[in-house]
Amino acid sequence: MKDIYILGIETSCDETAAAVVKNGREVISNVVASQIESHKRFGGVVPEIASRHHVEQITLVLEEAMRQANISFAELDAIAVTEGPGLVGALLIGVNAAKALAFAHQLPLVGVHHIAGHIYANRLVTEMKFPLLSLVVSGGHTELVYMKEHGIFEVIGETRDDAAGEAYDKVARALNLPYPGGPHIDRLAHEGKPTIDLPRAWLEEDSYDFSFSGLKSAVINTLHNANQRGETIDPKDMAASFQASVVEVLVTKTVKAAKAYGVRQVLLAGGVAANKGLRTELEKQFAKLKDVELVIPPLSLCTDNAAMIAAAGTVLFEKGKFATMALNGNPSLEL
Ligand code: KG4
Ligand code: ZN
Question: Using a 6 Å cutoff on CB, does residue 163 contact ligand 1?
C-alpha cells in the first residue's frame, strides 16, 4: 500500500506548530514555536498577542517542518489543520495557511478537532487497541473519552468548570509562582507533604465529570484566611495537598471508567500528562489491572504540537472526510 504523508498545522492557542507524519504513525518532522515567554508577564495567554505571534511564525515554522522532513508539496497527500476548539483569532491563522497551501498545491484539506489530536499523539508511540479510554488533561480541557474504533469519540466525562491545567495555573498564581504554573506546583509538591485538608469533587455517584473550581477556591481561601491570622502556609505543603486532591480524583475516575467500559488501553493526553504525581499514581493503579495497558506519550507529544494533528488527520483522510475551502476556525467545536 502507498505511504500517506500529511502536513499538520496547529495554532489553536500559544504554540505555532507544523509537522509531517507518515501513515499516521511516524513523525518525520515536528516543529513547535512556543510563545510562553511573551505571555508570561501577563500571567496567562493573551489572545491578541497569540494571534500576532502566529502570523509572524507560521511561514517560518511551515518551511522548517518541510525542510526537516526533506519533502516537497507534490509528495504530500493532504494538509490537516486544527479547526477548533481554541482561540478564534489564533485558529484562523492556521486554517487560512492550510487553505492557502491546499489551494496552491491542489491538495486535499482535513479539519481536525484539537482533542482528537491530543488523543492521537498516542498513535505516534504505539498501536491503538480498541475499545480504549483516553484521559485528556490540558490547560483548556479535562475529558474522559471512550473510543470503540478509529475516529469515533464518545465523551463520557468532562469538567463542569475549570480544566485541570487551568486549576494548576490559577493555584500557582495564588502561590506567586510563574506562568504556566503546572510544572512549578508539580516540583514543589514533591518537596512538601499533603497535610492541608482540601476537598475532592466526586460529584454524583455515577458521574465521570470533573470539577476543579471548588478546589481552587478552597486553596485561595485557605491562603487568605491564614494571611489574615498572620500565619504562613508552606507553599510546598499547599502544592502537595492540591496535587493530591487533583490526582486522586483524576485517577479514581479513570480507573473506574476503564473497568466499567472494559477497555484494553488507557491513553494519557494533554499538557498535564507531564505531571509526575499523575503519571506515578496512574502507573501504580494500572499495574494492578493486568488486562489494561496504560500509555503515556513523551512530553513533547503531550503538549500542543502539529504531529498529533497530522496523526488524527490521517484517519479522516483515510475515511475520505475532507474539508472544503469554506473551512473556518470554530472556537467551540464539538468532538
Ligand atoms: O496541552 P497543553 O500544552 O496546552 C493546552 O492545550 O492547554 O497544556 C498546558 C497546561 C498548562 O495549564 C500547564 O500548567 C499544564 O499543562 N502543565 C502541567 C505540568 N506541565 C504542564 N500541569 C501539572 N503538572 C505539570 N508538570
Ligand atoms: Zn492542547
Answer: no
